[in-house]
What we know:
alpha+beta, Aminopeptidase, 8-stranded mixed β-sheet, 8 helices, 31% helix, globular, Acyl_CoA_acyltransferase, GNAT_dom, GNAT family N-acetyltransferase, N-acetyltransferase
Amino acid sequence: MIENPQARLDTLPWPFHTERLTIRRSTVDDLEPMWSYRGLPEISKWTSWRPADQQDWKTYQGDPARMARTLVFEQEGVIAGDLMLMVQDAWAQREATGRARGTQAELGWAVDPAFGGQGLVTEAVRELVRIAFEELGLRRVLASAFADNKRSTRIMERVGMRREAYSVKESFHRDLGWLDGIEYALLADEWRSQA
């Protein structure tokens, strides 16, 4: 039987704590508080989908596969935002696929604007990177965004990620048309040398 790399999150000692935040696995009870900011146009502008309404949000986000990779970060017991930690296989030649299985993760994030401007997302993503490298033992993390999403780009840079790719007009935005895309990544060895 082939192991589901995402299931490795089930083995971790949740929740994790930073100076100001608690990071934990999301539950169906979190869908309503998450909707309070995920339904805002300024948030969905840069995300991979815009929920049509609260029911659409609950149906799509409540899917077990999505829930398995979604975390929330709380400040004083209130959800301030959410994170994605999607463990994946790295590309490998066929005969070496076993060595690349579950060795990297794609990261993502969103924050409730009421909690913006306090550095909470950066704090949460730093801990997410630490979890990926120290707790899961991954070798690489990556994050991508529309290049015009400067807030996300700054977070990637603040946590020590480096730009690996800049693609011209490769991503189609529902309102803005073809836009440039950007990808940042960080290796575990690079992260350890920054500490």
